[in-house]
Structures are given as C-alpha cells and as structure tokens.
Amino acid sequence: MLPLLHLFGLTIQTPLLAVLLGMTLGLMLIARLATERGLKGNELFDAGFYGLIAGVLGARAGYVVANFAAYGREPLSALIPSTTALLPETGWLCGIVFAAIYLWRKHLFSPDLPDLIAPGIAVFAMGMALGSFFSGDSFGIPAQLPWSIYLWGEWRHPVQLYEAAGLAAILVALLYLLRRRVPEGVVALAFVGLYGGLRALIDATRAGVPTLFGLRITQLAGVAAAVAALWLIMELYAGRTSAARVQTDAGSLSEAPPVKTGEP
Amino acid sequence: MWTWYTRPGGAAGSDIIAAAARIGSAAPDITLDTLDGKTISIAALKGKAVVLNYWASWCPPCRAEMGALNEVYRDYRERGVVILGVNQMEPAATAAAFVHQQKLQFPIALDIDGQATRLYRVSALPTTYFIDRNGVIRDIIYGGPMTRPLIESKVNALLAH
C-alpha cells in the first residue's frame, strides 16, 4: 500500500495516478484500434478526453450543489481543485452524456464501436484495480501464502493484483478476438462474460463485500453476467449461421436453372 | 457451487476487519496529552463527530488551513463536533507558540514520539480524518489547505450519519 508518493518535492496520490493512467492508456488503445479499422481514432480519443473533463467538472459541480449550504457563503472556493470534493454520480452522468453527444455530433457511432471500446475499458479497469492496490481499498481476506501482502494489520490475499492480472489476460483475449472475423458485438460481450467470470472467481478472496442470502453480491453478479454474455454470444452466432444459410439458399435458387413449364 | 463454497464465513475464511486508518473502519484509538495538560483519546470522544487533523508548524498548508478549522470549530462545537489537532513531533513550546499566534480554540494534542502518526499511517502533512459519532472513519483528506466550505461539507456529512 502506497497512497502517497513523494517525488521531487511533489506529493502524488498514487491511486488517482493509476486511474488516470489507466484511462489515458485505454483511450489511446481505443483510438489505435479504431484507426486500424479505418475509423476516426483521434476523434474517438477526443470524445473520451472531453468526456473525462466534463465528468470531473460535473462531479465538482454536483458536490458544490449538494453542499450549497457550505459553499454558498464562499462561492469562489468551489473553483479550488480538490480530489475529495467530488460527487461521483453527477460526474459519471456528465461524462457519459457529454461523450455520447460528441460521438453523435461527429457521426462516430458504428455497429462495431462497443467491440473497439471493450479493450479500452479493460485497460481502465486495470488502472482502477492497481489504484485500489495502492490505496489499500477492496482488499483481500486474511491468508498465509508466499505471495500474501501485509495490509491493515494482517497478511492478506493481494486480490487487487489478481484482478489486474486477470484483466491483462482478458485484454489479450479481446485483442485476439478483434483480429478474427467474429460477429459484431462478440468482443464486447466476451469482455462482459470474462470479467464477470473473473470477479466470480477472485472475489472469493475479497473482504468486506456485501452479501445476499449469505453469498457475495459481486460473485453472484459476475456469474449472472457471464451466463448472460455466453447466451447472447451463442445467439449472435446462431443468427449469423441462419443468415448465412438463407444467403446460401438464396444464392442456389438464383443459380438454379429455370424451371421448364409445360410447352405445347 | 464456487460462490457457495467461498461464501463469507464459510470454508475459505472470514471477513473480519480490525480498526484501521481507512475509510469505513473503526478509527484506531490513540491517547495523547494536550497542550493544556489534559489527556484526550479517540475512544472518549465516541458520540461526537471528530475532525482529526495532523499538523506541524513548519508545514505551510497546515498553517493555511488553521483559520478555517478554527471557524468551523467555533460554529459547530455546540452541535457535538470536536476538532482535534495533533501536532506531529514538535516541542510543546513550539506548538504552544503557534497556537497562541493563530489564536486556535480547538484542543491540540502532542504526538511527541510519533506513535499516533504511525498508527494512522500519516505520510504527508496535513492529513485529516473525519470520524463519525460511532467512531467510524468516513473520509480522509491528504494534503491541504482545506477551505472552510470543504471542511463544513465533510462535517455536515458526519452529522448526517
């Protein structure tokens, strides 16, 4: 755990750094994959970047509005940057809405957009997992293993590192699928399914997760996401197979010799 | 099967978390001498909202936020809010001179040997912990200076818990 890093007289919040790094690298990957497919990668990067800025401003504005009783007397203090005076809900809302409007105005929506975004989200999630490792959040249950980490007074599973490593493997799988001719939507669904499976597996070693009927909610949600994604992938493949069959049948009909009708 | 076998408290282990200087955990107890010769502890402040501020007189952002902390203490002390400044390993005379110069009204504790600093894993100054009436840490602010509205918003959140 290393929440603060002192470098050249600066104090850097390592969790925030990891998240921002994950977000930037994720956006760069999306832009590169889009460019490889002949799409406007730079504009996709811009959509994410402007969405990030809108998200930060939205989170800050949301916090100030929610605490107007405190900020009303000194409204200028709302302009002072602070990483702890943010409202995540308004931040996510503003960021997503702004990025969506930008994509729509620039005509960047395409059927394979979710497939291109999925690997970028995997990289961003890796940044989040590493951020949790640095801050000591989302920590593991006690365990005496050669690779256990000492955190909060006990030796524990480094579940944040399990998650980051699992996401790295998922990223490799997604990039492999992107280079194969899979139906549109399969890569995005594969991310949902694989990440769901990963959480169902590793959250067995995560402490402090809320439970439902005695079972961890994140594990249950992970299993549900994996099953749903698998079912949808099978549907996509079934749809493509039947479409190909219809096309083949139509082709054989058009190529068939004209049926002779009875001639006098 | 896996989710059932690995359920909390099941075969794979327990989820019990001890007191720790992290958001969501019980605040570790510290007992320190104050500048006015009394003793103060986190355990004794249970039932009150506590703002635990680690500072030192040589630290510019610490100095910059003392006025805001003083104002919030003045306005919220009647509502059950305690601001406890913990001076990090300075001589009592140095801390006292600073308190006198800044006209601070809230209690100041002395962490002479740095034990409270180590227990709360303070690695930068100022660091401020917001502890609710049940003794649970609800927020941590690394660095500063904090503005009055920021402190007030965090204190209001503590009182709402």
Keywords:
heterodimer, A: 264 residues, 2 domains, two-stranded antiparallel ribbon, 6 strands, 7% strand, globular, B: 161 residues, Glutaredoxin, 31% helix
H-E string of chain A = EEHHHHHEEHHEEH
- What composes the largest sheet of chain B? 7 strands, mixed
Tally of alpha and pi helices of chain B:
5
Percent strand of chain B: 15-25%
Can you describe what's shown?
- The complex is a heterodimer of chains A (264) and B (161).
- Chain A is mostly helical.
- Chain A has two domains: 40-109, no CATH class; 111-246, no CATH class.
- Chain A contains eight helices and six strands.
- Chain A has helices at 14-36, 41-66, 68-71, 88-105, 113-135, 159-178, 186-202, 217-255, and strands at 4-7, 10-13, 149-151, 154-156, 211-212, 215-216.
- In chain A, the strands form three sheets. Chain A has a two-stranded antiparallel ribbon with strand order 1-2.
- In chain A, helix 1 packs antiparallel against helix 2 (41-66), helix 1 packs antiparallel against helix 5 (113-135) and helix 2 packs antiparallel against helix 4 (88-105).
- The mean pLDDT of chain A is 89.
- Chain B is of the alpha/beta class and 161 residues long.
- Chain B has one domain (21-160): Glutaredoxin (3-Layer(aba) Sandwich), CATH 3.40.30.
- Chain B has five helices and seven strands.
- Chain B has helices at 2-5, 60-76, 92-102, 115-119, 148-160; strands at residues 31-34, 39-41, 49-55, 81-88, 108-111, 127-131, 137-142.
- In chain B, strands 2-1-5-4-3-6-7 form a seven-stranded mixed β-sheet.
- Chain B is globular and about 65 Å long.
- The model of chain B has no long low-confidence stretch (mean pLDDT 91).
- Chain A binds chain B through residues 3-4, 6, 11, 13, 63, 67, 69-71, 73-74, 77-78, 80, 82, 84-85, 136-137, 141-143, 152-154, 200-201, 204-205, 207-209, 211, 214-216, 219-220, 223, and chain B through 2-4, 6-9, 12-15, 17-18, 20, 22-25, 123-124, 139-143, 147-150, 152-154, 156.
